[in-house]
Amino acid sequence: MDSVENSRFSVAVTQRQQSRVNQHAAADGRGHPFQGRTMTFESEASIPLLIPQIDGNEERYLRQCVETNFVSTVGPFVEQFEQKLAEVVPEPWAVATSSGTAALHLALAASGVSRDDLVIVPSYSFIATANAISYMGASPWFIDIEPTGWTMDPDSLRRLLHEESYRVDGVLRHKATDRRVAAILAVDTLGIPVRLDALSMIASEYDLPLVVDSAAALGGGVEQPSSNIPNLLRTFSFNGNKTFTCGGGGAVVGYDAELRNALKHLSTTARLSPAYEFDRVGYNYRLTNVQAAIGCAQLERYDEFRAIKRRIFETYRDALADLPGLAPFPDPEWARSSHWLSGVVSDPGEVERLESLRNVLLSAGIDAREFWRPIHNQKPYLSAPRADLSVSENLWRRVLPLPSSTSLSDDAQLRVIETVRKTWR
């Protein structure tokens, strides 16, 4: 930045710093010793990519768990967490689970996926998305993403189903392998919502269940409620790197009551009664009361955290807008991104330069790691069926996430921005 730009930006961040401190002081209101801790997560030596912000009611709620002896999978915070999550999404219900991957596994099981099936899924995602399919004994059928929104491309999906599948005796099958096509598993990439209206229309046309891996999308929003898509299931992660965390955990949300009952049953080892009687292979995928207590404290700050994430995105976008060969992460018009991660994407011809920038940031104590490699290039999935994946192949080396924690101070973000600008120019 030139001196005038830098001065204006510094004044702006100083004002926001004071506003954030005042905001937390007012929100705490109890003289709690956590007050203002948001300003001390970064040091001059290290700015992490994503860390949780645990400075609300977490300690108080955890103390309640210990004092009441509710530290396992039974306790009041689990139900409160499910109710609050359903409220903010919003959906009629939520079923809490031990992890986001467990939530995906349950959603696929409840959707009827079984051994030797194929599930259509984007290759550009974290590998857990495909692993959940493998847990069912099924295989991923990889599809590409949109170049502008980075989520499953509805046009590619429709073309894939039209050209490479056929229906016999009411069953949709893959032409090349004759395997049943069992479901569509879309991904809210980096918290960027899928084109739910288009995908749900295709799913309905081909009579396929639709599951959306919304692991990092809490705080964002889609344009269509699930009441219009009765069999839709969405899953969330509450891992420590997510905007809202339980330390670990996940959830499935949806509209259909029968699906909720199936998910609850499966997640509690498919137990029929207090007696040791079970009717199928189930899973011990319950969230603990301790984890739910942290989650309840986090969701109390839903509006605050989502606003911070939006501000981090806008600050990077505006401060780096004039750098040639770099663009911000997508911010779609069709829905509201959660902005779980903000960062920059380079032009195709700037990959080596972007890698140099990454190394400079790391040397400066700024976490700027390499991000997802497409799953079809990972060893467990080299032989999985796939469509044309040219967008994913072209994109992944050009993505550079920048520090995006809700606790990121304005001084720290300014340091990131100045390092990027100085290096790129």
Overview of this structure, please?
By secondary structure, this protein is an alpha/beta fold. It has two domains: 174 residues, Aspartate Aminotransferase, domain 1, CATH 3.90.1150; 239 residues, Type I PLP-dependent aspartate aminotransferase-like (Major domain) (Aspartate Aminotransferase, domain 2, 3-Layer(aba) Sandwich), CATH 3.40.640. The protein has 13 helices and twelve strands. The longest helix is centred in the N-terminal third of the chain and has 26 residues. The chain is globular. The N and C termini lie close together (10 Å). The relative contact order is 0.17.
What structural category do the secondary elements indicate?
Answer: alpha/beta
Q: What is the class of the largest domain in the CATH system? A: Alpha Beta
Give the strand tally.
Answer: 12
Order of H and E elements: HHHEHEHEHEEEHEEEHHHEEHHEH
The CATH architecture of the largest domain can be named as 3-Layer(aba) Sandwich
Could you tell me how far the N terminus lies from the C terminus, measured between alpha carbons in angstroms? 10 Å
